[in-house]
């Protein structure tokens, strides 16, 4: 894996040794409940946008199933401030 990370690092002058995240990825501070809701909806809707499913809760590997009171693969602690 280090060889791959090293190879990717050479593509960008800002990297010294390794590139782990995509260059466009960057951390963002979660500063409000509204912002959390927006990010959860974005994540849940990715399989819909990709045309994999019609509804977020239909995607087997998504916590959207848990938010829709369906059984998911993992146990998920739902955010009480978030309602589908």
Q: How would you characterize this protein structure?
A:
It contains three helices and no strands. With 84 residues, it is mainly alpha-helical. The longest helix is centred in the middle third of the chain and has 17 residues, at 33-49. It is elongated. It has a domain at 29-84.
Brief summary:
This protein has 84 residues and is an all-alpha fold. Helices cover 35% and strands 0% of the residues.
- Based on CA inertia axes, which overall geometry fits? elongated
Q: What structural category arises from helix and sheet content?
A: mainly alpha
Q: How far from one another are the termini?
A: 39 Å
Proportion of helical residues: 25-40%
Largest sheet: none
Q: What's the number of extended β-strand segments?
A: 0
List the uncertain runs: none
Q: What is the rounded Rg?
A: 17 Å
Mean pLDDT: 84
**Element string (H = helix, E = strand):** HHH
Helix count? 3
Beta-strand residue fraction? under 5%
């Amino acid at each position: 894996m280090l060889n791959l990370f090293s190879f990717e690092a050479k593509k960008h002058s800002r990297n010294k040794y390794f590139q782990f995240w995509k260059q466009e990825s960057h951390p963002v501070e979660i500063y409000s409940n509204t912002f959390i809701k927006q990010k959860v909806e974005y994540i849940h809707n990715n399989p819909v946008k990709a045309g994999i499913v019609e509804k977020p809760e239909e995607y087997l590997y998504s916590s959207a199933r848990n938010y829709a009171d369906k059984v998911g693969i993992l146990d998920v602690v739902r955010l009480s401030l978030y309602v589908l």
